[in-house]
Amino acid sequence: MGQGTADHGVAELQRRLVAFAAARDWQPYHTPKNLVAALSVEAAELLEIFQWLTPEQAERVMEDPESAHRVADEVADVLAYLLQFCAALGIDPLAALAAKIDRNEVRFPAKRRGGEGGEGGESGERGESGEGGEGGAGEEGAEEGVRKAP
Length: 150
Fold this sequence. Notes:
57% of the residues lie in helices and 0% in strands. It is mainly α. α1 packs across α4 and α2 packs antiparallel against α4. It is flat and about 55 Å long.
């Protein structure tokens, strides 16, 4: 298969990851708990690349071939474990993301133009893409007019 993203749909990548693990008899280790732990570790490895960079250095991280390669590899590791986690639990990651965006568009309306800020349009209130599970402090706080930062 080619390297381009057009060659790789999410379902195909999940199938390849499951087959890769099966060919190595790794399925007993690929429990939801282990996969989400591995996902967390890989996300921390991605963070480590940026840990001591200034904001300006972080903006230019992809200009250096060595750091660009490290970032791309860690992004791939994070995505691989997320896709395997979703496969293990029967979650369609694109459907889950679309549903979350739909909910956030309702919870956090866009700021009105012309200085007329509506509820949810106040400075600093944005929808989250990586917030914890539904029903957590962010959900309850939003109902009371207090919003958790993304």
